[in-house]
Amino acid sequence: MIALVIRDLKLAMRSGGGFGHALAFFFAVALLVPLAVGSDSAILVSVASGMIWVAALLASLLSLDRLFSIDFEDGSLEAIAVSPLPLEIAVCSKICAHWIATGLPLAAAAPVVGLLLHLPGEGYFWAVASLLVGTPALSALGAFGASLTAGMKRGGLLLSVLVVPMSIPTLVFGAKSIALAVAGASNTTAFLLLAATTLTAVAIAPFAAARALADSLR
Amino acid sequence: MSVWEFANPARFVRIVGRILAPTALLSASLLAVGLVWGFFFTPPDYVQGSAVKILFVHVPSALMAINAWIMMLAASLIWLVRRHRVSVLAAKSAAPVGAVMTLAAMVTGGIWGQPMWGTWWAWEPRLTSFLILFLFYLGYIALWHEVDDKERAADLTSVLCMVGSVFAFLSRYAVNFWQQGLHQGASLSLDRDTNVHNAYYVPLLLCMAGFALLFVTLVLLRTRTEIRKQHSAAIAARINADVR
Known about the structure:
The structure holds two protein chains of two kinds. By secondary structure, chain A is mainly α. Chain A is 84% helix and 0% strand. Chain A has nine helices and no strands. Chain A has helices spanning 2-14, 18-37, 41-62, 66-74, 76-82, 87-116, 123-148, 156-182, 188-217. The two termini of chain A are 23 Å apart. Chain B has one domain (21-186, 203-243).
């Protein structure tokens, strides 16, 4: 399982920076926000906590397309499926690898994006914390979506249509835990609910994705 | 005899042929009576005026929008556990009907909201939940369209429906947490003493029964079409094989 995680990470790094793309997209969306809504600091402050989460969600979505489809096309997914490793565990490894390659860098870059969007000082800790806790859910749900569209030639758009509605609880609780902290209120409930949503997603997604992949491979 | 006998497609088609006309007729008459009664023979509300009467379309369609998804969830589960083809085809047939019900609930809500709340749309928990539900319907329908192999499409959409249900349910509570509501509480429920006023109660019940039967009729009709489509595709495939 760990070998699979390392393999995926190596592939992500060597195929022209899988780390880089999601991160670059994160910054690109952060750049679009002030250009679209205006550079007025008051406006930016009011949307910053939400836009960090929207940008993270989009960046995470963008990198999902290749999660299973490349392995599906070159046959390595079949090799993984016939190996003694249960498919569910293989999916878990994929989720881990995807999270290390996207979720972790996004959380690390969140303070910089926060700075660009004039996020008030109380928000920085919670921006990093909520992304650390919330992005595993995005990776898990994304893996489920990617498993549904694995065999398709142009599944990218459908993948987004399927994953975005399922990511709504994560987005709401994640953005709320930053926004409440910025407003000086207690954000414990929001943060705990965010963690609960992540646990739900991580518990369900491997089984559902393994089931869908087994179907596609038959 | 067990309920699973109806899972036989031939038997299902035979029974649908027999009950389709009565259910359609019953649904149409219930809707006709309920809507005419509701629109023309109920007094206007003393705050809302005549605008209140849109409730006879809004409440039943909102109810069926949610129930259609629950029915799809049950049918998908039956397909995954017992592999009855009729079940998954019924889920497939119910999705567009449910999506239209969701849309109808949102549109009638907007028409009512414009004079009452002063806006066509408010970012308010119930409205937002319905928009999210609509997105789930669209995703489910899109997945059916995109997968060519019938068996695979059935499996994938069923898994999506089950996982989607969990997160649709979570979203409902997430948006409640997200913002306070503007929408009034349920107009009627079984476990409360104060329901909507008697003048509206009976026609509303008639409309709800009519919408439920309309849903049943449409799903039966569409499921039968799906079965026949698969049947004719199978025949065509056999003829092609014979020719070769």
